[in-house]
Amino acid sequence: MEVNEKMMDNKGKGLLYPSQSVTPIPNEESTWRPPPVGSLLASVDAGWDAFSKKAGLGAVVRDEKGGVVKSSWSHIQYCASAEEAEARACLEGLKHLIDIQRFPSTVETDCQRVVQAAYSLVPDRSASWSIYSEIQDLLRTNPMLGLKKIDRSSNQVAHGLAQLGKRESSGVLSESVPIGLSALIANDCKNCVL
What we know:
By secondary structure, this protein is an alpha/beta fold. It has helices at residues 82-100, 112-119, 129-141, 156-166, 182-188, and strands at 40-48, 55-62, 68-76, 105-109, 145-149, 171-174. The protein is built from 5 helices and 6 strands, in the order E-E-E-H-E-H-H-E-H-E-H.
């Protein structure tokens, strides 16, 4: 089946089938916003290369002051699609929040398809069904966790971490991000009440 180029964006994310519809999600934010007092927010993203099938995942967990609790980036040697990479990034973000155990907490992603599949009552039949099933199980067993769609412009730090992972690098930092991403954290914190 041919995919219409108008249905794809510059990252290879788009509708899998012409009949597949994507409903806009309200309250999409255009800049990073801190979570409510006492909760955490994990911003996640993925970078995928259609030629090599390699992917990078990035996640940054922050508190209500914009302070970094944890950041991570990882490399996936083989990943079938951008959708799979984004779903894996969301799963990683949820696992980070569960490990930290500060609730309520939310994972933010710029991939609408992942959010819709995570909250769908209809079993997913895509190639990423097992990842979606695990995400649904985590959300069901941890009712103080959430997943929401945000605008790509709100996800710059996670995007930078995913790009590090895409370069076959992996790492985890506590209370910081790699030096090259510090300016993005500072810029995001303009919206924080300290």
